[in-house]
Design brief:
Elements (H helix, E strand, L loop, with lengths): L2 H10 L1 E5 L7 H11 L3 E5 L5 H11 L3 E5 L4 H10 L4 E2 L5 H10 L3 E2 L5 H9 L4 E4 L7 H9 L6 E4 L8 H5 L7 E3 L5 H5 L3 H18 L2
Helix pairs in contact: 2-10, 3-4, 4-5
The structure holds 3-phosphoglyceric acid.
3-phosphoglyceric acid binds next to β8.
Length: about 210
């Protein structure tokens, strides 16, 4: 992953995973993230609003916007055209990684086993999304994988929240942690910008307290 993007994700330590049902909600969500102190988003290609939402958020110029749930080369093209600065994939797909590389955009593929981590390494990547973290062995599994794969950094996502965040952030091999708890889909859809901003601020404060 390109150094500047990874540096920004590592310094925020949190990557909000967003599902937007309507691009009309994207601006308010972006404001909640920026004002809450976490100017980062992973906008997932789980809804038809993803590309337009990325465009709205990226055009503001005040937050690092990536695309998540990128599982096809066509989605890579859409994400890049919309202004995404990095891509996240739930698994490791050669086609997705190669298309990302053609665009010169960093990509974070999913990997939760030694074989998957090696596949990512073979594709020239050293940072992977550990997804779904909770049901794939959690922090203990990451610590075990980090023993042989000393240069690999993980971004655990899926089942992470305030109650177990500390387990992941305590690991030196964890670059950042992804999650949706600070950007609940229903509150974003309801236009509850103040409520989301408060959740974001709480998450930022918690991550700051847990900083090793
Ligand atoms: C993801 O796509 O990374 C996850 O769905 C986010 O998982 P969470 O909703 O459990 O945080």
């Amino acid at each position: 992953m390109a150094d500047n993007v990874l540096t920004q994700l590592s310094s925020s330590r949190l990557v909000p995973v967003v599902v937007l049902d309507d691009a009309a909600d994207a601006h308010g969500l972006a404001s909640a993230l920026v004002d809450g102190g976490l100017p980062v988003a992973e906008v997932t290609f789980r809804t038809d609003a993803a590309a337009d939402s990325i465009r709205v958020m990226a055009d503001r110029g005040d937050l690092l916007v990536g695309a998540g749930t990128v599982i096809t080369p066509a989605q890579v093209d859409q994400a890049v055209a919309a202004g995404a600065r990095y891509l996240v994939s739930p698994g490791t797909s050669r086609a997705v990684v190669e298309r990302a590389r053609e665009h010169g955009i960093p990509v974070l593929p999913g990997a939760v086993t030694a074989t998957e981590v090696q596949a990512a390494l073979e594709l020239g990547l050293d940072t992977v999304k550990f997804f779904p973290a909770g049901s794939s062995g959690g922090a203990a599994a990451i610590a075990a994988l980090a023993a042989p794969f000393t240069g690999v950094r993980f971004v655990p996502t899926g089942g992470v929240g305030p109650a177990n965040l500390h387990e992941y952030l305590a690991l030196p091999s964890v670059a950042a942690v992804g999650g949706s708890w600070m950007v609940p889909r229903d509150r974003v859809r309801a236009g509850d910008v103040d409520g989301v901003r408060a959740l974001v601020a709480d998450a930022v404060a918690l991550a700051a307290r847990l900083r090793p």
